[in-house]
Amino acid sequence: QLQASGGGLVQAGGSLRLSCAASGRSFSRHAMGWFRQAPGKEREFVCGMSWTGSSTYYVESVKGRFSISRDSAENTVYLQMNSLKSEDTAVYYCALQGRRFSTIETRRDEYDYWGQGTQVTVSS
Known about the structure:
Elements (H helix, E strand, L loop, with lengths): L1 E4 L2 E4 L4 E7 L9 E6 L6 E6 L6 E3 L7 E6 L4 E6 L8 E7 L16 E2 L3 E6 L1
Parallel strand pairs: 2-11
Antiparallel strand pairs: 1-3, 3-8, 4-5, 4-9, 5-6, 7-8, 9-10, 9-11
């Protein structure tokens, strides 16, 4: 089970840190991803981390502003979001691949476990 938290309302240019805590399954052998879904749009990949934690990948629109990290001891993955823009407004979801020793994937159907989503609203 994945539990996402940390969303909220922030002004443009501000920062938020999202958390995704796992229970019953360790992150340490599985690739993780963050997705988001804006109103009226499909859920899209934002960034991901390989199972080793040594590789990350970001979509162009968030590169340099967002950062994914994990704390294996706490079994928690984070998404640090800086310089937020109005177009970042969405429900953010963390996701875990069921396959062990997996690489970063951008497709939703590669992820087997999903958090419940946390709302991020950026006011301009």
